Amino acid sequence: MACLSSEEWGIICDKFANAQNLTDVESKNDPDNDPFRSKYKARELLREIYCSLKSFEAGETEEDSDQRPEEQPVDGQPDEGICRGFSGDSRDGLRAAKLGVVEYYLGINHVETEELSAGQEHLMNCIKQLEKCRVSSENVSLFIHVRNQLGIIWAGRDETDTAQGFLETAESIYQRYMKEDGSPPTDMTEYFTTEEKLLTHQERTKRFELAYTHTMYYLAQVYQNLGETERAATYCHSTLQRQLQLNQFNPIEWALNAATLSQYYITKGRYLEGRHCLAAATVISGLAGEVPSEAAAQESDMESDHREQLRQKRAEIARCWIKYCLNLLQDAKKLLEDTIGELDTDCQEELKRARRHEEEEEEKGRKIALLFGSEDTFDSIASLEEKAKEYFQMDGYVTDHIEILQDHSSLFRALAFFEEDLERRCKMHKRRVDMLEPICNDLNSQYYLLIRRQLMFELAETYNEMLDLKLTLVNRQADTQSLDNHTIKKFNHLCSASAKYFQMFLDSLCSPEGKLPEHLEEEVLRPALVARFRVARLQSRLISSIPPVQLDNLNKSLENYKYVVQYCEAHPEAAPAVETELELSKEMVGLLPLKIERLKARMAVNN
User: Fold this and answer.
1) Contact 246, 213 (CB under 8 A)
2) 311 compared with 418, residue with greater pLDDT
3) For 343, which DSSP code?
4) How many of the other CB atoms lie within 10 Å of CB of 331?
5) What does residue 86 show for φ and ψ, rounded to 5 degrees?
6) Which of 137, 160, 238, 561 could form a disulfide with 185 if both were Cys (CB 3.0 to 4.6 A apart)?
């Protein structure tokens, strides 16, 4: 029987170690004009190893070769070599695994040098070698690694179903192996190493578990692409858990992935999981250290990029906290508001009683799955909001900056719903105005027209909400006949400001000649008609003791109400979009002329 001498085996092991060093270390120093120089050298060494192994195989006699056993799978179904073939620790089993390892690393080498088809061919050759063997501790790691890599290749080609097949097979191999054996398996690097350099059981286990963690990570992406979002979230969560347990993660990337996962949970109303993911993201991002101070002159480009990336990622996590709070408040508002949109305190107490025990039990069960460690929460959302706004400054991040401001504004709007003190509620809306108004006025309409329209409409509605609150306060205190000049001035300011921004929104729809289009596009139909309706209502609410001013306000109000009615008559398909506003507009078109005539009559008598 042919056999490699210890010297020949030592040469093969040295070549393998050199190939690994060229790939992992030397390649990082390759010049830009020859970026794969070291990897090409590694490829030649791997080919030499393969030829040595094949020549040894050819030198054997027929009697030396073991016969492949014909064993049936446990479940009676073919399962990609899981239960049939050579024993993993047999001579033929180990030879097939060694050839498979070389094919695997040749496949990875070709993938890394952007030769995907050749890489795929070598990886499939690896699988062919493994098909000769049963899964065992000697080869299970290779079984999983090669399918992970093929899954990546096919996913990169948008062949998601094919990628899914390879990855799910890797998963089933892992699960069956852990159920039936579970001992620390041989790592792929150990096939070509001397006995004194073999890994410890602890290191073998860590590497094997990391390979399976990669399987779960890739499956999470596959399920996401297939639209199986719940399944994708489960695999993503498990991946993050395993990365922490194995202490194999980049703190900032891990934190951003956890924060992104939180957004899925939040949209599903699963705030326990969402909060935990964000808390973990905040804690883990802290492991990356403090953001370095602004550059010293000697700061390298790499250090500058690291500082910028750290600030950006932490700002993005802070934005996710804002989304969490905003969604939580908005969902609570939907549960607790009454028929007129106010806080129903009776409903609030009833829901508290009904949900308290249920939530306690639910949280106990769900916390079992939340293994991210300490569940630290933030002391004040304000600091996180400011962190996000500080990074996404207007210069270079206009849309991000404005989206954060809009979220911040929406957060105050949601908080205002729970505030029973009307003065404090009004101040919350004033905060919204203070955030949005400067940006709205500074933005260039030529480049940010759609964003400006959003801001103008939100400002108009915010002033309108403040107006309604002031009116409610006034009605509680006294009738409008006894209003002092300061209150009237404040009331008219809010009224005029709301009308101004509604009108600015309408003006943004006009042609250069200042005319509204005869036909409003679907995306602006309701906002435009609502804006005309609101302007009409606001004009009629202005307080003035001067009859000509009163008459002018009423005429402007009537003109806007008529527009809503006439547009819907000319375009009947628009009526369903503004059903309530149209009904009230028709009513006011009938009532206002009578009010105008009475005012004219009084003016005539007084003259």
Assistant:
1) yes
2) 311
3) B
4) 14
5) -65, 150
6) 137
**Alpha helix ranges (H) inside 294-393:** 301-336, 345-367, 381-391
**Residue 519 φ/ψ, nearest 5 degrees:** -125, 120
Specify whether the CB–CB gap between 37 and 96 falls below 8 A: no
Name the residue type at position 604: A
The top-scoring range by mean pLDDT among 95-109, 281-295, 421-435 is: 95-109
Q: What is the CATH number of domain 6-56+86-272?
A: 1.25.40.10
Identify the burial level of 90 via C-beta atoms within 10 angstroms of its C-beta, where 0-12 means exposed, 13-18 middle and 19 or more buried: middle
Q: Are residues 137 and 185 in contact, defined by beta-carbon separation less than 8 angstroms?
A: yes
Q: 0.70 exceeded by the pTM?
A: no
Q: What contacts 24+ positions apart, CB below 8 Å, involve 148-154? A: 148/211, 148/214, 148/215, 148/218, 149/104, 149/107, 149/108, 149/111, 149/123, 150/120, 150/123, 150/124, 151/215, 151/218, 151/222, 152/218, 153/111, 153/116, 153/119, 153/120, 153/123
Q: Please check whether residue 471 is in contact with residue 543, taking contact to mean a CB–CB distance below 8 angstroms.
A: no
pLDDT category of residue 1 using cuts at 50, 70 and 90:
very low
Distance CA 345, CA 420 (A): 10
What pLDDT sits at residue 306?
A: 77
**Whole-angstrom distance, CA of residue 244 vs CA of residue 248:** 7
Task: Supply 501's token pair.
Answer: 């921004």
Instruction: Please state, in angstroms and rounded to a whole number, the distance separating the CA atoms of residues 376 and 326.
Output: 19
The predicted model gives 494-520 an average pLDDT of: 91
Residue 295 scores a pLDDT above 60: no
